[in-house]
Amino acid sequence: MAVEIRIPRLGWSMEEGTFAGWLKKPGDPVRPNEPLFTLEGEKATQEIESIGEGVLHLAPDCPRPGQVIPVGQLIGQLCAPGETPVWGSSAPTPATPETPPRAAEAAPKPGALPPLSAEVAASPSVRRLARQMGIDLNQVTPAWPGGRVMEHDLVPGAPVPANSHSRLIATPRARRIARERGLDLRQVRGGGPGGRIRERDLQTGMPAGAPLAEIPDNAIPVTPRRRTIAKAMVKSRQETVPVTLTTRADATALLALRARLKRETPKGEIAPSFNDMLLKIIADLLVEHPLLGSRWEETYIVPPGDTIDLGLAVDAPTGLVVPVVRDVRRRSLAEIAADSQALVEKGRQSRLTADEMRGALFTLTSLGPYGVEFFNPVIPWPQVAILGMGTIKPQPVPLPTGQDGFTFRKELPLSLTFDHRIVDGAPAARFLRDLVERVEVIG
Amino acid sequence: MVAAPDRQELANLYRTMLVIRHTEEELARCHQRGLIHGACHTYVGQEAIATGVCAHLNPADVVFSTHRGHGHALAKGMPPFELIAELFGRVSGCSRGRGGSMHLFSPEIGMLGTSGIVAPCILQATGGGYAFQLAGNHQLAAAFFGDGAVNNGAFHEGLNMAAIWKLPVLFICENNQFATEVPFSQASGIPDVGRRAANYGLPGEEVDGNDVLAVWEAAHRAVERARSGGGATLIECKTYRTRAHAEGMGDFTYRTREDVEAWKARCPIATLKSRLVQEHGFTTEELDAIEAIVVSQVRQAREKAEAAPPPEPKDASTHVYAEPARVVAEKPADPNARQITFNQATLEALTEEMAANDRIFVLGEGIGVRGGNFRTTAGLFDKHGPRRLRDTPICERGFVGLACGAAMAGARPVVDFMFADFVLDGWGEIVNQIAKMQFMSSGRLKMPVLLRGCIGIGHSAATHHSGSYYGMLAQVPGLWVAVPSTPRDAKGLLKHALRCDNPVLFLEHREILQTKGPVEEGDLEIPFGKARIARAGTHATVVAVGRMNHLCLAAAEELAREGKQIEVIDPRTVSPLDGETIAQSVRKTGRLLVVDEPAGPCGFAAEVAALVADQAFDYLDAPVRRITGVAAPTPYSPVLEQTVLPDQARITQALRALVEE
Q1: Which CATH architecture has domain B339-518?
Q2: Residue A355 DSSP symbol
Q3: Which residue of A141, A228, A439, B170 is surrounded by the most CB atoms within 10 Å?
């Protein structure tokens, strides 16, 4: 029995990936767990291992390296020696519409011409959808006279929004204009049949055929990484209700610990950073404040389990990446430091795998090195909160009780941004207060 | 008094036969050496026939021959080097390496060509004769063909036309008793060919084809008759090829070694040699001296051919069409010109061109006194008479083949098919002969053949009077295909067709013949391959030819009332197709509908769609749409007829959907 090879979902919200190439040749025998092909997900490139055993056959419409393909697309089969693969539809299973249309809606439109051919033309995927919806294709009039029945003919009047498609549908003209202007078609709602994006959907008010803006010579192309970041930011902005609380923590203990660890760390190794220390504190605190490390699932909220994995924002040359440090609570500071150091290095070299960036419950980010004190970090959806560290510097504080005047002490500015849909202001403030206390007594 | 060759002529006959024999044997050796890339059909054993006939021909007389044509080319005067180099695929071969054994062209010496198809040479020689008769010179055309050709329709059609019009043609049947490997006794109800001539009212002779003097005498009579206006003659020369059908093929599955040996013993060259010594006072020594010179010349020709360079790859597709002799630019249309019908416009063009060029003649059924079923030649018979307005028997293949030969021999034939459905009966002549002739002769022959006929569904014409066929015709390299939609285009394009040197299919939609439009008087020539923007617009492009263009314009009017401006393009010629104008329009509008009356598969609409995908893909803002006729033969009943035909309502609806899509 042949084993299907389909494009796996590498990330939480991954709908499509860039096929990077096969690691086996057609006709090669493949064993389970052998690397089979390379796939570029939203943030990383990953070697996909075989789930089965057999001789590799490529699908007739197998993607070329560099081609963007939807998750779930059939790209090959592993067959027993001598077995011939049978290729059905390679398309991913279409999303089932939330509201099945009533039979009346699918009836022929008055005045529309009947299809000329007795046999109704429809693709296999549309036929399957019709079966699932209990619609007789012979009763459906395609929007195009005498044309094929399309998915949108089954759901009349309700063009499927673009983002529900596993594949972006846009005309070549719209794609070209988007390319020339650096527009992200994923952000555009297509008004054409089946949610197809047309020129007019990109530029309302601009007449068809009007000359288009020239691309300036110094234009910067939008990389897939940049597009992924942009998409994540917009997603967060669309989905969350962010509120930021700011405060300062006395950094005296933190600086002392850092100095001590630096002294104690053998030559050639790197001492734990402020980041590592904060990660450790956050991991402990999330046990007491589970809501800050939970995940919103619309009808329920998933609190963190025993294992606390935390994201660490890294400024890589190609753009922001957020590797995940695993099981922070149960591991030593030295282990955390070693881990985070390695992840940061990989991040800067664009060598992080999708796995290494998946599953964080909470994220720490820092703009301290640039002198920034407070800022508004963006919550990495579907996480609930993110903590921003500012630069440690001396601040005037009143002298101990009974004395007039000020003294100076070094303080760490902290910005906590949280999703007010899930966490209210007071619990978030309590988390921040507890965090400050832990920072001030670390050692 | 029976004519006889003099001593010098006898020596020449002997020498020519030796040139053929030794060249063929050299080629057989070269075939074994691998120097010949394709087929090699030798003429060994049949040398007396080409030699005896061609001895009477002038360089201005023309020869058409078959797949076994080496001997005819050599006897007509082709140097052995050009033949050998051709079979070696060299650029100095007689066909510049484009033909090989079966496609020998040397118009310079009147060798107008050999063909890999059996029997077209009969029709082409008939056409050559027609051209010479029209020109009023005393040249003649000869067709050499085997016994295989005489049971083909072309033999019947060609001999009949030559007989009724008394054309100066020699039909030389080389009955070597096998059509490839099928014996003549199994292919014909009577054992002889020559006597068939009587059925056509032609003189026929049956001679010993291995006796060069017998052939010479029969040919002498036939040539005298042809040159003096007595018309054509059929001569059957009974002979035998003593080598295999093609070099390298087995020979004894269908005939016996004994038969072959018996015929070898009747070698025409040995027979002539002994007669020259015994009856004509030649010495063996002087005949051997002639042979020694021939052997040496053939060897030198072969050595030279081996050293000759191959053709340049860049020339692989040159001469598919004639080089334009002049630049034609279309004058701006005068909207205030007088209004005449499509029909009147084409008649005006033909009338003016026939007055200007006496090489033009028209062939067809009822185009003479009657003036054409569709008044295509009205009034012309009175001006030019029957030779230039030739009513034909109903033999489309025959007169298309005749037109081919006439064009090769310098005339400018117009074939009026009445209905384009009848074109299909001449399909092989059009595709294999007319369309390929300029290429195969590397541009040394011109093919100014105009093939015109009515197309189009309507008025219950039913399936044999309604086809369009331009999709399949436009697939043929070497043909141009014009499908005009307005009277002005019809006149201008027909004038261009009558002035250019390429074969043109000129297809007139019957349902628009009476539509009127402004047409300038006098000279109006419109070059091929330049589309006309029939209506400018920005929201979508629609492309259609012929009657469909009229429907598209009407649909565009409707859309204009709804605020949508449709650009309507009329390519005017399907081949050459003006892709740039179409692509330019789609780059502007982003939307394309192609409307075409014939069925869709592999058709004109598909070609336009593919062209736009190639040239304007990134500008498409909607899928390319097609409306084509239903893929069914045209039915008769009006209800059924309307169903298979695209109509204005469908076009309007499609355009509405397209601009919204």
Answers
A1: 3-Layer(aba) Sandwich (3.40)
A2: G
A3: B170
Contact A391, A369 (CB under 8 A): yes
Among A21-30, A200-209, B384-393, the least confident range: A200-209
Does residue B660 carry a catalytic annotation? no
Helix (H) or strand (E) holding B276: helix B268-279
For chain A, give every domain's residue range. 3-79, 162-222, 225-441
Q: What is the pLDDT of residues B542-597, one digit of tens each?
A: 999 999 999 999 999 999 999 999 999 999 999 999 999 999 999 999 999 999 99
B396 is catalytic: yes
CA distances for A330 relative to A169, A284, B513, angstroms: 47, 9, 92
* Chain A interface disruption, residue of B617, B618, B621, most A CBs within 10 A: B621
**Interatomic CA distance for residues B141 and B127, integer angstroms:** 8
Annotate B583-604 with DSSP letters as a single string: HHHHHHHS-EEEEEEEESTTSH
Residue A85 or residue A390, greater confidence: A390
Q: Residue B288: CB partners within 8 Å, gap ≥ 6?
A: none
* pLDDT attached to residue A210: 43
Task: Give Cα B397 distance to the centre of its chain.
Answer: 11
Domain B7-245+256-307: CATH superfamily, name plus number: Thiamin diphosphate (ThDP)-binding fold, Pyr/PP domains (3.40.50.970)
Displacement of CA B484 from its chain's centroid (Å): 23
Record: fold of A162-222: Dihydrolipoamide Transferase (4.10.320)
Q: How far apart are CA A195 and CA A168, in angstroms?
A: 9
What are B562's two structure tokens? 């709804």
Q: How far apart are CA A237 and CA A228, in angstroms?
A: 14
Determine the Cα–Cα distance for residues A390 and A414; give it in Å rounded to an integer: 6
Look at residues B46, B23, B42, B131 and name the one whose alpha carbon lies nearest to residue B410. B131
pTM above 0.90, yes or no: no
Amino acid of residue B626 = R
Cis peptide before A382 (omega within 30 of 0): yes
For residue B618, the chain A residues in CB contact (below 8 A) are 172-173, 175-176
Fold of B532-660: Rossmann fold (3.40.50)
A399 pLDDT band, cuts 50/70/90, is confident
Fold of the domain built from segment(s) A3-79: OB fold (Dihydrolipoamide Acetyltransferase, E2P) (2.40.50)
Q: Does residue A176 belong to the interface with chain B, where contact is any CB pair within 8 Å?
A: yes
Cβ-based burial of A266 (10 A; exposed 0-12, middle 13-18, buried ≥19) = exposed
Eight-class DSSP state of B41: -
Enumerate the β-bridge partners of residue A316: A319
Chain B positions contacting chain A at CB under 8 Å are 538-539, 588-590, 617-622, 625, 627, 630, 643, 650, 653-654, 657, 661
- What kind of fold does domain A225-441 have according to CATH? Chloramphenicol Acetyltransferase (3.30.559)
ipTM, two decimals: 0.73
β A310-312/A324-325 pair status: antiparallel
How far is residue A363's CA from residue A234's CA, in Å, rounded to a whole number?
17
Measure in Å the smallest separation between the Cα of A170 and chain B Cα atoms.
8
Question: CA nearest A201 in B: which residue?
Answer: B621
A269-324 tens-digit pLDDT: 889 999 999 999 999 999 999 999 998 887 888 999 989 999 999 988 878 889 99
The structure tokens listed for B536 are 């400018």
CB contacts of A116 in chain B (<8 Å) are 630, 643
